[in-house]
């Protein structure tokens, strides 16, 4: 598990360095653009990443100090402060907040990376460092795409993060998937990804779950792994769907799958 933690922390560092370099070149008009998260402008995405970094750092520090998860009052105070910032302030402060979090991850010694357990600020079992860093990597990677998609329709998730996130996507599928997106129908989908190659199944019934690849699916989805992750997280608009995505089915369409995963 230490290796997994190491790889995830390295991916966080790479992602932060990449996004921080991009943000340094953004002006006021760029920050005001609608992001890939359609209800937020680019600065609001950076605000979310900045406040999330502060809250995540408080959780990590609480685990190290034995004081537990951050309180609701602390979290609400962080959100309010970031909400009150100007666009330029959000762009400037986002990198500082995320640098503090990533450096704290990097400073963890091998024993902490293996043994530390971090309490979350909602009802859940504590996470080890690999799981906690993966939770942050998922948030950071998808919101980085939101920033890039504001000006680049062909933006893709960071390759160094995709394989790590692909192997932990099952929990997200069950959490965000909406079975009623098919209007009462059920479906079994064979999913085949590239870069990296994976073969798995998606079942939509009473719930939405990942399964082993079905022998007799109702549909077969072939897609780059990064788009499969974007599908699950709701970042799948036709204008951001590459030509390599193909769904073969007599009964199911890509728009059906988009309704199963409306985003969050």
TrEMBL record:
One of its GO terms (molecular function) is isomerase activity. NCBIfam families: maleylpyruvate isomerase family mycothiol-dependent enzyme. Keywords: Isomerase. Residues 13-147 form the Mycothiol-dependent maleylpyruvate isomerase metal-binding domain. It holds the Pfam family MDMPI_N. It comes from the Bacteria. Signal peptide: none annotated. InterPro entries: DinB/YfiT-like (IPR034660), Maleyloyr_isom (IPR017517), MDMPI_metal-binding (IPR024344). Gene3D superfamilies: dinb family like domain. This is Maleylpyruvate isomerase family mycothiol-dependent enzyme.
